[in-house]
Amino acid sequence: MTRAALDPAFAEAVAEIEALGVPEWHALATADARRVEDELFSTDAHLPVARATDLGFDGPGGRVPVRVYRPEETPAPTLVFYHGGGWQLGTLDSADGICRRLCRRLGAVVVSVDYRLAPEHPFPAAVADAVAAVEWVDGVVADLGGDGSVGVAGTSAGGNLAAAVALAAAADRPLGFDLDVDLAVQALFYPMLAPGFDGDSRQEHADGPLLTVRDVREFWRTYLANPADAANPYAVPLQADERVLSSVAPAVVAVGSHDPLRSEAVAYARRLRAAGVAVDETVAEGLPHGFVSFADDASEEETGVPAAERASDAVLADVDARL
Fold it and tell me: Would you say the pTM of this structure is higher than 0.90?
């Protein structure tokens, strides 16, 4: 484990979480991991937005719940957001803080998607819901307060889904997904992009903090119920060929220097750039996985991690410019 040069304020925040005595994600039963994730990241205090409304649409596997956040001024660009949690964890409530921050900082309508989770619903269920969400948003965008510009964003496993949706929108012969929406941006925050990626960061930061390589392996194991799915670019975006990559939406790729996923995020940004895609890339020095969640909280006082705040602001400026 290498935690040298981890931002001191972030190290204090990590120590507070570790002091709770909660085992790593891979060591918990799914139900317990879901409860812990929800307790850690949900809050009773809320950053104000003009309106937050729980809705839903008929998706490929039944009703898909969404939460729509509207800024003070509309019509505005629309960002469809997919939460993280290794495709196993995460709720509309645990993603609430990030979505409110996106809505406020971008002045955008944010649609948070409660897609189906593994292991009950392995790949391709989450991707199918993610694609269907963009189709639904595109059809009702004006009703939601949108101005017609639509982008996708996601954290961790949600970043994987955002990348998959961008591939679906770009492919001229989609492999099971057909999305006829011109995306303005794909914002990939510390995305999970390949199950067996061999990069320096997986060795340097195998034990985290906040996400370990054992967690990553377990998440991929439950998500890809069929080993053959590891060759499917909608599950593993790093498998996408250059012809498809050349047509995807402009990308914002952000990852912490102390994240075990850093190497694959950097590799994907490099592949996109080589294919001719406009890419804004950030490797946030001294920060680990999940840093956007630590930018600030919902109180009037600034109690977040300043380095996470600065990095998040820089990344969201890139998203704003694309959206």
Answer: yes
